[in-house]
């Protein structure tokens, strides 16, 4: 009888222990799943918010670019034959347009490749990436992409306008990057953390901060080359999205002009990557 009671007690204890283990394991598993679901939900909401944030900035930048194109077109329409009668009249006209529209530079390019500014001719067409010889519609590019003092260059074709011993075919203006990004908040929060940024197609940031300052590199693609990505993300995919102007994976294309514009992508700085310490 005693042996049977002892066996029953051992079985009861063993059963209770098994049930307890199952309950503990179930609780731990359910807690883990709940945390994972919570993290997933938070991430989804965060990505939606960041996409919306980047999308609004894209709209402001695209609007600023379109307004600038209209500005330079208006300035060219104001030009008279007298303004091109000689160098002095042309430079006086250029100075008026610079003052009127708050431009850093307002210049023409001749068929010879010579640039005519308000301060005189400049043989520096090699500094600019637009193709003045084949331009058929407005083109936007960036000057000094690797420097802090970046300039937005907006160029338009103006037909063929005789001037001195040359023929003017392109008009372009330079705008300070800070002026172009006026009204585009790149920062939010007490610590001014950058949530999104505008990058050139090859990865240079317009705000001079790569990934909100969390990377030591000055180029986004260089920074991502040293990053560890979550499943489904890679530096190659981000680079391909930037090159193609694809929307998704943290990339929202900025409105393009003449296909090959350098200013092409608004990148969400909350990318799915872990960066080494800068």
How does this model look, in words?
The radius of gyration is 30 Å and the shape is rod-shaped. The protein has a six-stranded antiparallel beta sheet with strand order 3-2-1-6-5-4. The protein has a domain at 186-274. By secondary structure, the chain is an alpha+beta fold. A hairpin with a 4-residue loop joins β7 and β8 (193-194). It contains five helices and 13 strands. It starts with a helix and ends with a strand.
What is the spatial order of strands in the main beta sheet?
3-2-1-6-5-4
N/C terminus separation: 75 Å
H/E series, N to C?
HHEEEEEEHEEEHEHEEE
Share of β-strand residues: 15-25%
Residue-averaged pLDDT, rounded? Answer: 75
* Largest sheet data: 6 strands, antiparallel
Residue stretches low in confidence (pLDDT < 50, at least 5 long) are 252-278
Protein structure class: alpha+beta
Number of strands: 13
Determine the fraction of residues in helical runs and give it as a percent range. Answer: 25-40%
The number of helical elements comes to 5
Morphology:
rod-shaped
Over all CA atoms, what is the radius of gyration? Answer: 30 Å
Write a brief caption for the model.
The protein is of the alpha+beta class. It has helices spanning 2-77, 87-101, 177-180, 220-224, 235-244, and strands at 105-110, 115-117, 120-122, 139-143, 151-163, 166-176, 187-188, 193-194, 196-200, 228-229, 251-253, 263-268, 273-274.
């Amino acid at each position: 009888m005693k042996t049977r009671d002892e066996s029953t007690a051992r079985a009861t204890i063993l059963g209770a222990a098994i049930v307890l283990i199952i309950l503990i394991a179930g609780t731990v598993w359910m807690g883990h799943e709940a945390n994972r679901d919570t993290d997933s939900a938070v991430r989804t909401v965060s990505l939606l918010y960041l996409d919306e944030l980047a999308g609004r900035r894209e709209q402001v930048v695209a609007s600023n670019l379109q307004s600038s194109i209209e500005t330079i077109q208006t300035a060219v329409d104001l030009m008279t034959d007298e303004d091109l009668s000689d160098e002095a009249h042309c430079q006086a006209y250029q100075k008026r347009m610079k003052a009127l529209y708050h431009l850093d530079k307002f210049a023409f390019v001749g068929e010879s490749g010579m640039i005519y500014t308000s301060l005189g001719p400049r043989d520096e067409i090699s500094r600019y990436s637009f193709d003045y010889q084949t331009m058929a519609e407005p083109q936007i590019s960036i000057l000094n992409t690797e420097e802090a003092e970046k300039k937005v260059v907006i160029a338009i074709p103006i037909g063929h306008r005789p001037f001195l011993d040359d023929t003017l075919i392109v008009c372009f203006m330079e705008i300070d990057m800070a002026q172009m990004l006026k009204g585009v908040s790149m920062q939010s929060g007490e610590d001014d953390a950058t949530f999104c940024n505008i990058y050139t197609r090859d990865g240079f940031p317009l705000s001079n901060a790569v990934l909100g300052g969390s990377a030591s590199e000055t180029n986004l693609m260089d920074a991502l080359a040293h990053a560890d990505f979550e499943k489904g993300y890679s530096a190659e995919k981000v680079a391909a999205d930037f090159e193609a102007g694809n929307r998704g994976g943290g990339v929202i294309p900025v409105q393009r002009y003449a296909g090959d514009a350098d200013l092409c992508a608004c990148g969400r700085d909350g990318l799915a990557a872990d960066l080494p310490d800068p």
